[in-house]
Fold:
Amino acid sequence: MMIKVKLFASFRSGRFAEADWEYVEGLTLEDVLKKLNIDKKEVGVLLVNSRHAGIDYKLKEGDIISIFPVIGGG
Amino acid sequence: MTDKIYRVNMTTLKVSTEEVPSQWKILGGRGLTSTIVSQEVKPTCHPLGKYNKLIFAPGLLAATNCANSGRLSAGAKSPLTGTIKESNSGGTAAHSLARLGIKALIIEGLPAKDTFYRLHVDKNGVTLNEEKELVGKGNYEVVNILSERLGKRIGVITIGPVGEMRLPTANISVREPGGNLRSIGRGGLGAVMGAKKIKCITIDDTGSEETNYYDQEKFKEAAKVFAKALVEHPVTGEALRNYGTDVLINILNEAGGLPTKNFRSGQFEGHEKISGETMHDIIVRRAGKPIHACHTGCVIQCSQVYNDQNNQYLTSGFEYESIWAFGANCCIDDLDIIAQADHIMDDIGIDSIETGVALGVAMEAGVIPFGDGPAVLRLLKEIASGSPLGRLIASGSAAVGRAYGVTRVPVVKGQGIPAYDPRVVKGVGITYVTSPMGADHTAGYSVATNILKVGGFVDPLKKEGQIQLSRNLQIATAFVDTTGLCLFVAFPLLDNPAALNAVVDMINARYGTGMTVNDLTELGKKILKTEHEFNLAAGFNNKHDRLPEFFEEPCPPHNAVWDFTEEEIDSFWNF
Structure:
């Protein structure tokens, strides 16, 4: 089973917009950020299945992760 | 130069000036327009009649070295909502008016004749000039003609045909440093200007004096601290510049709160094609400008210039709200069509949010199909012709809903709901129902804390903490709108106390006052309550602080519903 990783805005540079990864038991969002070489300080919004999640969140099969840099707007 | 209040009486066609009353000295922007409306406008008046007044006011920090201080406020009783209304924009006008010593320009009365006028403002004062050539022309042509007549640097405030026709979605456009248009968008203030028969206002600030500071050195120090805070905050220093506001399409879509197909669901299949990421790539590919400041002194530069497939100018100030309204809400996934729509709306002078929501209701009614871009462009072009259908669309979402017997009409106090579903972003939902402005997202931008995690985090899907969040933001926004600062400074203001202290210091150094942060909060509360009281006197009550009943339905993917009780919503005003 897989998890889906989606990147947005400047995080796409040198990486990808969307990728399917192998699900690994015990994988946390912090691990995902490390694998992507994204400094957690740069992360603005982290969503799992469209809900806000913390970096210690333990992933489950089929989770969809959306990672945004710090963002603003109106 | 001593600041003065300018009054233009359109009944007598006379201009007069007054000393600034001491209670108005510490007001500017929205604080000043709302105070004047509440003191001088009959709350029960007809918004297009002789008792309404249209007031323009630069902010407290206009014409200074303060970064991002050039917003121009306009206020009146709104022809769309019937409530008090303030709306503001960037452009060159605020700095120019402030440099010329104009604290507020109050337009009152109603002309007897059918003639339109151009107000001209320069160092000698304000004059009224009968205007024929510009009548019936779109805003872009108006700016071109006035540049030929009065010089390339002429400042312009203008209404398009929609304002001339006094339709309740008419906006007021302000010329910006690049020569294009920024919008005083919501609430139909362009119709008030049209009712008073003013086609445009030209501003020539040549020969204006330097701004008087109480303590110029202290001001400079505080301005440095403030500018640094803006540049160092990741939102204002980087994110907004690189991707503009349209970056929100993907974030709201991922969060499940992007209102789609007339507020049926929170995700749009075509989101990527209308996203800020896509827009950035198109702009760069077509040699447009991905970075653009809408007024002098702006360090954020969130705006852009978008070219067509032939690399020719198509539109600028192409923002999230407009793209959402025609994109996800009307199910159009073609950014070029939306850009053409944006251009037409700027030209005819109409609120892009209200028009997009109204078209969503028209699609709901089967007037045209959802997703039909060419049909949308046809309808927009019809508006300027003054046809019955064009006038109906330009009368706003509630009017369209009524004409077609539709219940799924997303409005509060007659104003169309903007680009965040209230069931999914509950903090902004509270702003929509309680704001004296009607459904307004900027009035208390809870989205910052609900979705973007700026100023902390309050879970958007839960009720807890939302009323307090919206209240605090509405109070802060009332104050920020009084300073003439771009509301995007709120991002660093929420996260960095040094930034807020710098704003207080700048006000004190400019005016010789001894204000504290607490005074600003009290000022914000006072403005909000003044606006609320005007609405009560105009006939509004707590029953108007409600969402339409269809928001009881679940919004996929979260299947969230609007579940605040009446008592919970009414508790907002307990301060």
Summary: The longest strand of chain A covers residues 2-7.
